[in-house]
Amino acid sequence: MVKSLVSSILIFVAFYSSYAQNWADDVHSYARPNEVRVKHVHLDWTVNFEKKKIEGFAVLTLERFNQSSSLMLDTKDLEIKSAEISADRVKFTTTKFQLGETDKTLGTPLEIQLAQDTKFVRISYSTSPQASGLQWLTPDQTVGKKFPFMYSQAQAIHARSFIPLQDSPQIRITYTATVRTPREMIAVMSAEGNLQSIKSRNGIYRFRMQRPIPPYLIAIAVGNLAFKSLGKRCGVFAEPEVIQKAATEFADTEKMMQSAERLYGPYRWGRYDILVLPPAFPFGGMENPVLTFVTPTIIAGDKSLVSVIAHELAHSWSGNLVTNATWRDFWLNEGFTTYIERRIIESIYGRNRSEMESMLGKQNLIEELKSLPASDQILHIDLKGRDPDDAFSSVPYEKGALFLRWLEQRFGRSRFDPFLKKYFNTHSFQSITTQTFVNFLKKNLIETYPGIVSIEEVNEWLEKPGIPKNAPNPYSENFARVENLAKSFVEGKISAKQISTKEWSTHEWLHFLRAMPEKLSFEKMEELDKAFKLTNTGNSEIIFQWLIMSIRNNYEPARNRLKEFLTNVGRRKFVRPLYVELVKTPDGKKFAKEIYSVARKGYHPITQASIDAIVGF
Ligand code: BES
Ligand code: ZN
Question: How far apart are CA 512 and CA 504, in angstroms?
């Protein structure tokens, strides 16, 4: 009797745990993973540059927990042609489907009727030329100017604009794909198969991602691409015109991998390659597994901006191996990654450089907090009814990294480093919530080494606005020197020419420029420009800072450069603040509208949405 009770409890537990994998409440997805879960996706795509459409089908492999329920998917601007079901993946029969009401941010739920024995669903569809997760570039938007280019950017909730699926980061899937492109073009994806693409160059490409990933990590790019190896397991893809420069800039990639592995355990994804996109790419980088996507604006010629590579590589642990379960847990991805990024930088380029980058990061955070409502200053942010793209800020990045650095300082690296390594091993290939992290932190640090950190302190970091009073203060000797020089220059005690900048890295330049007061006279601006050729610098971070200053001070000689920058570069981090600064004056607003009317068509939908809200469209 007791025995049978125990065994039925065991059976129940076994059944229940497969069925109730504690799904988090994801306000950004229509999926009902507790009823049916997609496990694998096969894509068969034709990339049509004339129509700016991907056409083809997706076959979804299902795991069903409730035999009577239908399948609910996320879609956005997709044209659904048919839905078919199958028990064996061989014989498919047509089934009923229904598109629900469209939400501007979330898109349109797609409900598909299933039969008792259904294990596979095939959906034939095509994307819209306006798909929010794709950008179609004309040849003149590329470096080579001969071939068009197309790429995807699925994070946070744009995978649904090119694949009908359960678009929630807690649903992990494997995928395979067959991609057909114009014959002379190359397709690459966030999967195995990219080196094969380069070798065959025949217009039909096959890919396979065998490790379970969240849907926002599915990615594709098609263009005229070349490849250069950087080591046994890493390399770079780019247009042939930039491949050599890119390879030189990213030469330290293998070293970075080894440094991350020493800290947090083996790299689990096979290869790590980098794809350099055309300048319209809206982000610095995107951690697509096996193939990080980056903006060409980090190629400075002196490796000074490669922290973006360290960052995207770090996501191979924080983000891709251990994933935020919902977008309110985004700080688990970005805070951890920013912290690890700086650990990698420290180990390769030294503490001095990582401290400068930490200081610049904290400055950004403090600056941004001034204009953020309290509710957006919280790491464990409430995103109900909001577009994750609109809530994007440096809070999850820099406040998240400060929190981890604070834990590191309290417990010491000898305890904190093994703790993080264990965190990644324990949750590898899982999607977790902030609560799961807190439980793990309690058990493995707070209670293991009592009397060091209280749960109330942790709670303040995670649930309260602002920066806690005892937050870490990164410090750099170099920056202190630069500040003094900036002060002397502003006060007229020294001239620009007297400042010895020979040893300065990009970081010191940035700190120097940021140390200037909001208002500088034309003479001082001109003096800086003449001494340091700032208007002509090719370093994207420095020119950005200089252009911000030029707008604030109405510095006419930089106007053409500003126009050129805004029409060539689509990286949102640069473009958005420049427009924000411009629209502050009537004259600037006129200039902004003039530039935007030309530049808009070259921006990614994400950048367009941000700038529309500033300039008006
Ligand atoms: N995963 C992010 C980019 C992202 C975040 C895309 C949210 C869409 C929604 C990526 O890892 C990232 O953080 N990129 C940064 C660079 C980094 C060095 C701070 C960027 O693009 O600025
Ligand atoms: Zn990131």
Answer: 10
